[in-house]
Structures are given as structure tokens and as C-alpha cells.
Amino acid sequence: MQQKLKMSIGNDSKLIDNCNRHLNYLRISITDRCNLQCRYCGPQELIPKLSHTDILTYEEILRVVRVATRLGVSKVRVTGGEPLVRKGVYEFLRELVASEGLKDVSLTTNGVLLNDNLEKIQAAGISRINISLDTLNRSKYHDITGFDEFERVWRGIEKAYRMGFYPIKLNIVALRGINDEEFVEMARLSFRYPFHVRFIEYMPIGQADFNPESHLLVPEIKDRISVLGNLVPVQEAAHDGPAQRYRYPDAKGEVGFIPALSQHFCNTCNRLRLTASGQLRPCLLSDHQENLKKALREKGSDQELAEIFITAVNHKPSDHNLVPQKPAHICGQMRAIGG
Ligand code: SAM
């Protein structure tokens, strides 16, 4: 059912799409720049960098968030590019956390800058962090990311743990022939630490000049790490994402799976994405986007911004149709859209 474009924003507004999904989660990419060059995430030389004026200012992002919360968005994740490379990010996080109507603000980072900045992240009021870590091996880390930063990242993860950040989610993109030998070791981390170790199916999108030998899907990953014990399902909680959550008996942490290809979770997808350049995308795997930046810079009213949200919501596809054999040739890159 199409929503009326003239809906006015108010305290009980909700973004409900044509498939009756309630979109209350906004992922915000605050920059397309990254201090790593992960092989699967889109080669930097192929993607022109956005200029300073192309990306939304923090004030513009906060205005978008204000409108979004009045439309029922209550959960925000800050991502990138690498969010921690953007100047002024800690003050921005503080203001974001203070936004009225937001119940959950979290951060996704590659962890390179964590160790030196955790105090500022904590002071901003963030306790939930996702850290991307595809390997526990220093030379493999260099091979995947192009940089010798494994030890710095690991120091940051341990410090975050000591400082009481919770949950700390470690995101591993499953890459056959690259990191699959380490899955058991990574799952074993959930015995030593209360981390949520999450295996993500590699999504063939954009221009990544990278072809894994073949896709490694969740059933195979589960099978491989079952040598450590029975995986017991964990009860889902409010604000849970698409991860299927499990725990080994006696483990401190959890193991999760994100079956982006093998088991589409589109029917429960509650996400919208704001790109660094101010485009609102209703689906990671579709090029449809609505131009919020134009409205912001042409002094559009809150009502006009709200109508752009509603148009985006009305264009959310029912399913992304991505299968292992069929890459999605979307123009955007994870780096600019925010994975
Ligand atoms: N720089 C931050 C980081 O590394 O976490 C945030 C941005 S990064 C694009 C967000 C997540 O997207 C990372 O966990 C990364 O591994 C994941 N990602 C990037 N390309 C992917 C792909 N083709 N398939 C699955 N996940 C991907």
C-alpha cells in the first residue's frame, strides 16, 4: 500500500513500506574515505573520491536524523568508508547520541584508529561497536587490507573489551581460499571473550576486482565450526539485525551468521541507508536512491525531507535477488554506501 506523500511528520509517524516492513533503522556513511583497501570492498583507484563539498556536513546529517526520528527511526549505525578517519567525528557522535528519539547508536569500524580513540568514543556515549576483522594472521591481514595493521587493530579490540564496550561484534567476511582455514580459530574467540563473532557471506557487488574461488555459504561455515561443539540458538532481541545468533555451551560470547546470499532476509529488512554524498538508499543492493542533499542545500523544509524519505521507502524492493552465481552490478560501492 503506497503511503500518502502528503503525510505530515509527527510523533507517531512510521515508515511502513509496500511489504509492510517497518523501516526504523538508518545506516549512515559519513565518509567514502578509508585507511584500508580491502580487496573485496572496491578498489580505491577505480572509484573517484568525493570532494569535501560533495559529502554531507555533520549539521546536514544531524538534520536528516532529526527528520528520520520524527518518522519513527530509532536506531542508527555510523559507518563509511572508515568513519574514524573523518575529522570531527567524535563531537559528531556525541551530538548524534544526544538526538531525541534515538534509542540505539552504534559504530562500524575497521578498528585501525580504535586504540587511540576509545575514550572519545565512550565519552560520546557509544557502547556498541562492530569491528571488521577478516583474519587473525598478521601477514594475511596485510594481504587482504593492503596494510600491516593487524596488531594495532587487535590492541584496540582488547582495550575496548577492557573498557567495557558491549557488545563487541567481530565481522568476518567469509572468503574461500583466503580466510576459511581460520574459521574455527575465530569461532573459538567466543570462548575466551564475550565477543559476538559473526561470519558474513561475501556479496558480489559493485566493481570489486576480486573473485573468491567460490562462494562460502553459511551452512558450510556452520558445519566447519561445529567441531567446537553444539551451536545453540540464542533468543532474538529487539533491535536485532539479520544475524542468526548462536552460542556454544559454556562460551562467554556468541557466534553469528549473516546469510546475505543463501537465505535472504529481505522480508524482515528494516534498513535505509544514507550515503556519504547525501543519497537515501532503500536497499544496499539496488541503485535506487533519493537525493536528500539537493533538498538540504536548497533549503527544503522538514516536510520536504520527510517526503523524500517516504518516496525512498515506497521504492524499497521486496527482495534483492542476489544469488552466488549472479553478481549485482550496482554502481555504488560498499565504501560510499556504507556496508
Ligand atoms: N570501514 C568500516 C569497516 O571496515 O567496518 C565500515 C565500512 S565497511 C564497507 C562495512 C562492512 O562491509 C565491513 O565489515 C566489510 O567487511 C563489509 N563488506 C565490504 N564489502 C563486502 C562484500 N562485498 N561482501 C560482504 N561484506 C562486505
Structure description:
This protein is α/β, with parallel strands linked by helices and 339 residues long. The chain has one domain (25-337): TIM Barrel, CATH 3.20.20.70. The protein has helices spanning 58-70, 89-97, 114-123, 138-145, 150-162, 183-192, 218-225, 292-297, 302-314, 334-337; strands at residues 25-29, 75-79, 104-109, 128-132, 168-174, 196-201, 232-233, 244-247, 254-258, 271-274, 279-281, 290-291. Strand 2 (75-79), helix 2 (89-97) and strand 3 form a beta-alpha-beta unit. Bound molecules: S-adenosylmethionine. S-adenosylmethionine binds next to strand 3, strand 5 and helix 10.
Q: Which key terms come to mind for this protein?
A:
single chain; 339 residues; alpha/beta; TIM Barrel; 12-stranded mixed sheet; 10 helices; 12 strands; 28% helix; 16% strand; globular; binds S-adenosylmethionine
